[in-house]
Amino acid sequence: MAAPVSAYKDRQFLAVIGDEDTVTGLLLAGIGHVSPPPDSQKNFLVVNAKTENAEIEAAFDKYTDERKDIAILLINQHIADRIRHRVETYTAAFPSLLEIPSKDHPYDPEKDSVLKRVRRLFGE
Amino acid sequence: MTDVQASPALAPHTIADGHLRAGTATGADASDRDALVEQLDSLLERYLNTLDMYEKAQQMLTSILSSANFNNRSGLRYGQDHYDERMQATRTITVAGEESKAAFSVSAPKDAPTTSTVTKDSPSANATEESPTGDSPQESATEPEDPKVNNASSSDRYSSTDPLRWFGILVPPALRQAQSSFVAAVEEPIPEIATLIKDLRKQEIDIGRLRKQLKKL
């Protein structure tokens, strides 16, 4: 039932889908990684007002499904709102999905999918 | 003969729930039930404790990130236009333990940016400070040979893996402040929250399983 150890021991990177200030801050902390050319895969997506939801979803799929080297996916909560159905139905063991606040959008427990699950657990 | 006839009727019941023995002894059922309720209580208590830790870690992260506000007064943007496309992660995650109760931790090599950022801003001070790290294995591993970069700048420009360098040598103090805040966030609350989320998930499954067992009684 449990995945073999090798399935997640290679997961060593953080990935981030966030606004520019959040991504810049996290890259300053040294989490940014671009794989060698020719594919030059980034582990971050900067989302701005012009970014389409489809692009956010594609990045979400890439970091949660395609890539096997991501341990934790960070996503700004206000961006997670834009693909809320995807975030809430995400159940895979790895990568771990974390909603984080941003400068302009403080953490809102009402929206947190972890706390939504808690309410469901006690609401039954 | 009667036994043989009785057993197929009971079989689905007993197989479905290992705690039920032939479905007759009501006293045993009651004590089983009590034991399960007690178990559920302690699971819920543990769950609430973990939840409390989760909420505290989220609050900590919120306070760290809100102090990471980068108020840029210079009119220059410090954003993705400055990112170095050849960046290599200096802070990486280590996953320990089994899948269901994995623990995340962040490891950083010695030359990764730290919370105590260097305050010296003069180029000469930086140059002397970095020369010993110039031939570190980290640097050679992360710097593929790039013929397009001329020698004079390559030794200086990439002698440090500090991403602050993407934004030039004289960066505003607020950007350094933002860096140290984000380093603090990545080092502590983020791996902690990731671990707690996993723990909560596992406990939710355990609680759901136990509730199902109770319903069957």
TrEMBL record, chain A:
Top-rank taxon, per record: Eukaryota
Keywords noted in UniProt: Hydrogen ion transport, Ion transport, Membrane, Transport, Vacuole
Annotated membrane topology: Peripheral membrane protein
InterPro entries in alphabetical order: ATPase_V1-cplx_f_g_su, ATPase_V1-cplx_fsu_euk, ATPase_V1_fsu_sf
Gene Ontology molecular function terms on file: proton-transporting ATPase activity, rotational mechanism
PANTHER family to which the protein is assigned, alphabetical: V-TYPE PROTON ATPASE SUBUNIT F (PTHR13861:SF2), VACUOLAR ATP SYNTHASE SUBUNIT F (PTHR13861)
Similarity field: Belongs to the V-ATPase F subunit family.
Annotated protein name in UniProt: V-type proton ATPase subunit F
Species this chain originates from: Lophiotrema nucula
Source species taxonomy: Eukaryota, Fungi, Dikarya, Ascomycota, Pezizomycotina
TrEMBL record, chain B:
InterPro entries: Vma22/CCDC115
Cellular component GO terms, alphabetical: Vma12-Vma22 assembly complex
Biased composition (Polar residues): 113-141, 150-160
GO function terms (MF aspect): unfolded protein binding
Biological processes annotated in GO: vacuolar proton-transporting V-type ATPase complex assembly
Region described as Disordered: spans on this chain: 101-160
Domain of life: Eukaryota
Name by which UniProt lists this protein: Vacuolar ATPase assembly protein VMA22
